Amino acid sequence: MIITARPSLVQWSFEGSAIHRFKPITLPCLSKISVRIKSNERRIKINCGLRASYKKKPPSKVISKEAIQVIQALKLAKSSPQKIDQILKERFTRLLKDDVLDVLSELQRQNYLDLSLKVFELIREEEGYGTMLSLYSDMIMFLGRRKMIEEAEGIFCGVMERGLRPDTRMHTEMIGAYIQVGMMEKAMEIYGSMKESGCKPDRLTFMILIRNLEKVGDKEMVEALKEECFQFVDYPDKFIQEVEHKQKHAKKRSLHIA
């Protein structure tokens, strides 16, 4: 026999064929309770399932039709600066704010360098966009992956020239950009200025620095950073174990490939 119930309180217990009342127990976050009873046994199995909403993944972002049309038009006009300027002036500037950001994000995702830079320069001069730190962080990450360090530095310095204060993510993206081109000393300089400005490094900051310092064999700096994890990271012992585990796994994989 299977009994399915959906109460917030369970008020009954089963013992063989008898039923006894006991003190109610609150079962939070349950959508149903399935009770399975076998006639020849005294055991009762209760399966508690979480609410269906906990299992659902957030819907993926859908780019609007208007944004897609602008992206396609820009891609078709990429060899004509005049057409690009016309599209940006007549169509791009009429988009909603979310669509404007989606256009830039999609051009970056598809690795359209010149178009991304053109759109970025236009966006950051528009009112309401110039103070969005995520806008600059995304661009630094995009340029860093392409090893365009001078352009990434220009954007990072431009943020401070505008009187803005780079946040944790922007510092981390700049650190990553320097590491991409093997400029470890510059990466550590950014890490130092990050702390001096009162911006706290996070798990990703430490992960990037520790793993890459280990690659170049700077054990002293690695140990120093691990010590600093205790100042900035929650559950530092667990975090350090994760970093070391990933590093060991990466070494084994590289040896296997070799």
TrEMBL record:
Q: Name one GO molecular function term.
A: RNA binding
Q: Which domain of life is it from?
A: Eukaryota
Q: Which GO terms describe its biological process?
A: chloroplast organization; Group II intron splicing
Listed Gene3D superfamilies? Tetratricopeptide repeat domain
Keyword Cell membrane in record: no
Q: Which UniProt keywords apply?
A: Repeat
Q: Which PROSITE patterns match?
A: PPR
What ranges cover the PPR repeats?
Answer: 167-201
Record-linked NCBIfam families:
PPR
| PANTHER family found in the cross-reference section | PENTACOTRIPEPTIDE-REPEAT REGION OF PRORP DOMAIN-CONTAINING PROTEIN (PTHR47594:SF5), PPR CONTAINING PLANT-LIKE PROTEIN (PTHR47594)
Q: What is this protein called?
A: Pentacotripeptide-repeat region of PRORP domain-containing protein
Q: Which organism is it from?
A: Arachis hypogaea (Peanut)
